[in-house]
Design goal:
Elements (H helix, E strand, L loop, with lengths): L5 H12 L1 H4 L5 E3 L2 E2 H18 L6 H10 L18 H17 L3 H8 L14 H20 L5
Antiparallel strand pairs: 1-2
Helix pairs in contact: 1-4, 3-4, 3-7, 4-6, 4-7, 5-6, 6-7
């Protein structure tokens, strides 16, 4: 069954058309998938999880958090004098700060972005259904992209 994503597109249209967000297309996230495409994948999977399991998440918080969860604006594959060496532990904070700066997100959306790397960041446990959904969707999308979307495929 093909899902109707018009509701999702309506919520995300301003974010996805933003010039700064579109800069994420310049950076590779996993395999040959850009950070922008990865965030779109996480948003779509989050939407699907919410619908499939009737979780009744706040769609604006869920989708905004999913689309901006990796809004850190650099290529983490490049060391840059060691600056990105601990990317897995630090990028959620950078993404949250950028989301606050460019989109003035609310506390619930901020939480979704800040804790999406749990359990790697064990002190940042998701505490809302939206945060849990994005955390799970991010892990599933990351695994798929890393294994099946490699440059050699």
């Amino acid at each position: 069954m093909m899902e109707n994503y018009s509701e999702m597109q309506e919520i995300l249209s301003d974010i996805q058309s933003d010039r700064t967000v579109r800069k994420m297309k310049q950076y590779i996230q996993h395999g040959n998938v850009s950070t922008y495409e990865h965030c779109k994948n996480v948003a779509r999977l989050s939407y699907d999880i919410n619908r499939a399991f009737s979780l009744h998440a706040d769609l604006r918080v869920l989708l905004t958090g999913a689309m901006l969860h990796d809004f850190y604006l650099y290529d983490w594959h490049h060391e840059d004098n060691g600056e990105h060496r601990l990317h897995g532990f630090s990028h959620a904070e950078k993404a949250r700060d950028n989301a606050k700066k460019y989109f003035h997100i609310d506390n619930e959306t901020e939480h979704v972005i800040y804790c999406h790397m749990w359990p790697l960041n064990p002190g940042r446990i998701p505490r809302t259904r939206e945060a849990w959904i994005v955390c799970v969707a991010d892990k599933c999308s990351s695994l798929y992209e890393t294994i099946f979307c490699r440059k050699d495929h």
